[in-house]
Write a structure and sequence with these properties.
7-stranded mixed sheet, 399 residues, single chain, 4-stranded antiparallel sheet, alpha+beta, Alpha-Beta Plaits, 13 helices, 2 domains
């Protein structure tokens, strides 16, 4: 058996045994206390009744009948001894002589016309219920010991299985014989094997660079102004300016909800960059949320306005410079922007392969065949509320 399993078995068995002992002890003490109280109350009542029965004989001084009465009462109530003493504690009558070290003594006053004429003492054997209670406590103790052994066996089996897995992992890292004899158990051997690895060389160098601030992860949202390209030749200059400003206002308002920065990426194309920390989530998740919000609002606006607001949307992951306000974001992400521009779609929000493995996107979004299909709760409810607020802001501003 493995050393970890031995320790687990010993620990689990000891805890179970200690718990069983405590429970048996508490149960034994409480039940014994109740039985002793009941026995004392019964003997006190019995002594009082017998004292009342022998009081008339003590009053007339008929000691012969008193002896006979005591013998009869002793046999009837299965007592070891009955004794009647006068006020000077001299015996007037006695029946039986079977006192043992564990006998119980109970006394009651013999009253004649309201005056104390003597004392009745009864001696009884231990209550049989107490003996039964001891046997039951012993049986419970045996059950507790057996249960502890069973728990120890289960814990040992569970520990043996996991110790085998730990040993297999250690052998994968350091070989079957390296450090195995020096360690106190399987976990210590695994720790020694991990400590022997060149972790500084295994860690990617990007970790230290990201901590230094030279490179930051950026969520990128490419917005293709698909409908604008259709209206350039058909609208007059003033109408085209109003329409262009409305589209910029729409994208800027949605980007502002997630801390995004808006820039022109190419002709009829905008780039919204999301960097840094935000309460909503990672930069990639914010880019996907903003794209989904734009996709939903555009569908609502198409039903309310005469001109179409068709937008091509695609999201991905890129890099941001040390200060995205001073350095043009496309400097780091031109190849990613080209990929997003080629994959953008007006029918759905396209999610790049790199963005799909983002932790927040993988856990909160529903992605199918590279397209965003929805969000898990409570994020879907939050986006719905943002959609209504943004729609009210845009329609109200137009009104």
């Amino acid at each position: 058996m493995h050393r970890i399993s031995q320790r687990l078995a010993l620990l689990c068995g000891s805890l179970c045994l200690a718990l069983a002992l405590v429970l048996v002890l508490i149960g034994n003490l409480s039940s014994r206390h109740i039985l002793e109280q009941q026995s004392r109350a019964h003997l006190t009542t019995l002594a009082t009744e017998l004292a009342a029965q022998v009081a008339p004989l003590v009053a007339v001084g008929d000691l012969v009948r008193l002896e006979a009465t005591l013998r009869s009462l002793r046999q009837r109530h299965t007592l070891q001894q009955l004794t009647v003493n006068d006020l000077d504690e001299r015996p007037l009558g006695q029946a039986g002589n079977g006192i043992t070290p564990d006998s119980h003594f109970t006394r009651a006053q013999v009253m004649i016309d309201g005056n104390i004429a003597g004392e009745l003492e009864i001696v009884s054997a231990p209550d049989p219920a107490l003996e039964e209670q001891r046997g039951m406590s012993f049986g419970l103790l045996v059950l507790g010991i057996l249960g502890s052994l069973f728990a120890a066996a289960l814990a040992g089996r569970w520990g043996q299985e996991h110790a085998g897995r730990i040993t297999a992992l250690r052998e994968q890292l350091a070989g079957p014989n390296i450090g195995a004899g020096e360690a106190s158990d399987e976990l210590a051997a695994l720790e020694a094997a991990v400590a022997a690895l060149p972790l500084d060389l295994l860690r990617p160098p990007a970790d230290s660079e990201q901590e230094g601030g030279d490179y930051q992860e950026a969520g990128l949202l490419y917005v293709s102004l698909a409908s604008l390209a259709r209206y350039v030749e058909t609208l007059d200059e003033q109408s085209l300016l109003v329409y262009t400003e409305a589209q910029r206002e729409l994208v800027a308002a949605a980007a502002g909800l997630y801390g995004g920065s808006l820039s022109v990426a190419r002709e009829f194309g905008l780039l919204v960059s999301f960097t840094g920390e935000h309460t909503t989530g990672s930069p990639g998740f914010r880019a996907a949320s903003c794209a989904w919000l734009l996709h939903q609002v555009v569908a609502d606006l198409d039903e309310r306005r005469r001109l179409s607001y068709s937008l091509g949307l695609a999201c991905g992951l890129g890099e941001a410079g040390p200060d995205s306000r001073d350095i043009y974001p496309a400097l780091y992400n031109q190849h990613i922007i080209d990929e997003l521009a080629a994959r953008q779609s007006t029918d759905a929000v396209v999610i790049s392969d790199a963005l799909q493995v983002d932790a927040d996107v993988a856990n909160r979004c529903e992605v199918e065949a590279g397209a965003l299909r929805g969000f898990e709760e409570p994020y879907s409810d939050l986006l719905e509320r943002q959609r209504l607020l943004l729609l009210q802001q845009l329609v109200g501003g137009q009104g």
